[in-house]
Amino acid sequence: MDQLNKEKFERMAAAEHPHCLSIFIPTHKYGMEVNERKDNINLKNQIKEAGEQLENWELKPREIDDFLKPLQNLLEDTGFWNNQQNGLALFRSKDHFEYIRSPHTLNEFVYISNHFYLKPLVPLLNTDFKFYILKIDLQDVHLYECTPGSIEKVDLGEDIPRNLKDVVGHDFEQKYLQFREGQTGFDKTMFHGHGEGKDDKKDEVVKFLRAVNDGVMNELHDKKETLLIASVDYIASYFNQISDYKNIHQEIINTRKQQHLSEVHQMGQQLLEDEFNKHKREQKAAFEQALSNNNASYQTDQIVPAAINGRIDTLFLNENEVIWGNYFRSTNSVKTDEKQTKNNAELTNLAAIQTVLNGGRSYIMKEDEMPESSTPMNAILRF
Questions:
Q1: 107 phi and psi, to 5 degrees?
Q2: H or E, element range at 308
Q3: What is the CATH number of the domain that holds 79?
Q4: pLDDT exceeds cutoff 90 at 201
Q5: Which residue range forms the structural domain that includes residue 138?
Q6: Are 5 and 150 in contact (CB under 8 A)?
Q7: In total, how many domains does the chain have?
Q8: CA 39 to CA 74: how far, in whole Å?
Q9: Where residue 246 sits, what CATH number does that domain have?
Q10: Torsion sign over Cα 136, 139, 141, 146
Q11: 229-254 pLDDT, tens per residue?
Q12: How many Å apart are CA 191 and CA 232, to the nearest integer?
């Protein structure tokens, strides 16, 4: 329910109902905010605001209560609040309820219209920024393909060992039970020096990791994306020495403790933040070059029609700006308004959605990060 991919985005973008509610709040994984239920209280306040807005849409109190009930139910779900990331988006229409956890912090926002507000989530669909995570220990092996908004398991095939027992056979329990992590300190120290059985154990682990590497290379042999190792230090170190993959990240995702897959995904993104920011800087430089060649714009009345007509390659949006208005297909033009009404829409959201649907990429940025910071939207045009 809580991951966003292109198919889900397209489905949500196509939704059209009299009352589509979108709520965004920042959330926390741990700390005082979790202990004092601050995120829970924040959502309760946003639900209250949504109820007040729904009154303006002439819904009766009973209709509002029924409409908001799925959101109200989350307030008492302890397990839900103990498994958050940095942002939470909730979407409700007459026949639909969905929430998406975001690794990015989301600003508080409540939006009701005949469509959903998806702008804050479009960075999760920058699928041109892709990486892999290999989660590996002696009892389990998984490879994941990741984007900022998704983490999907990759099938490594039946010939790849899933654990050390597949390599060492029936002697596994007698030779390794006493070394299981968390019982007697099964860590990198067991391979230091010499002694009875130590070299044998190292050889078996190396044999296992070589087999894992073969499976990974079958899948990634022609890839160039960064590979992150999620493991304990000594396994990551040995795999790094053994592996044929050319772009393994120097730092690891340490998984000595049990971690939810979404947390592993988020830790991977944090390690790659510099790479992702470099990608954004390159796109900002591309905007400046395109602007000098008349292939870019920072004007709302040009950018919104360009997005709808599939002309935007890259869209930059100020995270704090909203523009109310309408797009008129008959004249391919835009009219802006001073405030929201029942008959208009938020135009930066419209531009973001249409850019993604037409195969472009969108970045949500702080004002001082925008290529042209004096306007809410900047765009590199395709033609």
A1: -75, 150
A2: helix 300-308
A3: 3.30.960.10
A4: no
A5: 131-271
A6: yes
A7: 3
A8: 11
A9: 3.30.420
A10: negative
A11: 999 999 999 999 999 999 999 999 98
A12: 14
